[in-house]
Design goal:
This protein is 77% helix and 0% strand. With 394 residues, it is mainly alpha-helical. The chain is globular. The termini are far apart.
Length: 394
């Protein structure tokens, strides 16, 4: 039996503090993300598509198919939805957006001639009236400005062959990245876990599963909820007869990323659009019924089934994450803001649980924190004070 070298044995007994290394890795990752932000968009979009499609690929694999076949089926579904949206929904949205812009003069006239005088007559509030505006000239000027901006943007993209080729290459990378990530998602996750210290792997795997539940519930579940609400609101408003039904449904569905915000924004805009179109109270009642039924379906069916209580992100946290991501990294930051916020929430929850189970949290405020002995920190029994045994009979 060979004996260990004393120097080696002494070095092996020295505890290794890995936290500075972990913090350094996270700091380096943040710096790289900031520096590589201009080229990250195709990888972020590809990773998002890969993450959304991974459960479907896992189901195909569980039924005996290959992961490549599952990826092909996912691409077929996503491609069909993209074609339908491109050839049917987008032209209709553009048409309704043009109709909305054409109603701006009517809305302004209603505010100036009806809404503001009605409010002033009932509240005794006086003030200056809105000035008359030549909306034909204003809209023409703004459309010309928009056209100049669009032309300038297109010129910047296509001004040089390298710029156009770079933009086309970035867009072509999205399906390529999504394909390889969906096919090798499980292997990549397992290899990344093995890079961590062995005693960290079980806890990290548990936290990763919790983070996957949170992120999956939000990205997959909430995304389906948003699409379903957009369809419900759009169909309901179309049945009422509102001309901007599809546009209002899309706006309400997108705003539903924050709980109750989609309902508030959607019903407010829809009531205003219905009033400017019909000038009657009956369609407003129908609009209220559409959003009331939609909210009931969301609360009792969609959210409990598709999302559940696994998100744990407060609505204020969702708003802050989106705004902070957009401020820090633009559109890429908005895309990754909610997944990063969900992961941070899971890790913070584990950190709080660990703190509460530590000796620091268990210290008694009136004794140990002041340096008093532990005997002085003993709790007093209920029903009276404890009497020392040597004081009996004295």
């Amino acid at each position: 039996m060979t004996e260990r070298d004393p120097a080696t044995a002494y070095a092996a007994d020295i505890p290794v503090n890995r936290w500075p290394l972990v913090l350094g890795v996270f700091a380096a990752f943040g710096v790289l993300f900031w520096l590589l932000q201009p080229v990250l968009l195709p990888f972020v979009l590809g990773g998002l598509i890969g993450y959304l499609g991974d459960p479907l690929v896992d189901r195909v694999e569980a039924r005996g198919g290959s992961r490549t076949l599952g990826v092909a089926l996912v691409f077929l579904v996503f491609g069909s939805l993209y074609v339908l949206a491109l050839f049917f929904a987008v032209p209709l949205l553009v048409q309704q957006l043009d109709a909305l812009i054409g109603r701006i003069p009517l809305l302004y006239a209603w505010l100036r001639d009806v809404a503001i005088p009605w409010f002033q007559s009932r509240t005794m509030v006086t003030g200056a009236m809105l000035p008359p505006i030549d909306w034909s000239a204003e809209l023409m000027s703004n459309w010309q400005s928009l056209g100049k901006v669009t032309a300038k943007t297109i010129t910047q993209i296509t001004g040089s062959g390298f710029g156009l080729l770079g933009w086309m290459a970035n867009m072509a990378l999205v399906p390529v990245v999504a394909f390889y990530l969906m096919r090798d998602w499980d292997d990549i996750a397992e290899k990344a876990l093995r890079l961590l210290p062995r005693d960290w792997q079980p806890q990290t795997q548990q936290m990763t599963r919790e983070a996957d539940e949170v992120v999956g519930a939000f990205l997959r579940g909430q995304f389906i909820v948003m699409c379903a609400l957009g369809v419900l609101y759009g169909l309901g408003l179309w049945m009422v007869g509102v001309e901007l039904a599809l546009l209002l449904g899309v706006i309400a569905g997108l705003a539903s990323i924050v709980p109750y915000l989609g309902f508030i924004v959607g019903i407010s805009a829809s009531l205003l659009a219905a009033w400017l179109q019909f000038y009657d109270w009956v369609p407003l009642v129908y609009v209220g019924l559409v959003f009331g039924v939609g909210q009931m379906i969301e609360s009792m069916v969609l959210t409990p089934v598709l999302v559940g209580d696994r998100i744990g992100l407060h609505p204020v946290a969702v708003i802050f994450a989106l705004m902070a991501g957009g401020q820090l990294a633009g559109f890429v930051g908005v895309v990754v803001a909610l997944p990063v916020a969900a992961v941070i929430m899971v890790f913070a929850r584990h950190a709080v649980d660990r703190y509460r189970s530590s000796d620091l949290y268990g210290l008694d405020e009136g004794s140990s924190a002041l340096g008093l002995p532990e005997e002085a920190a003993q709790p007093v029994p209920e029903g009276g004070s404890e009497v020392p045994s040597d004081s009996i009979g004295s």
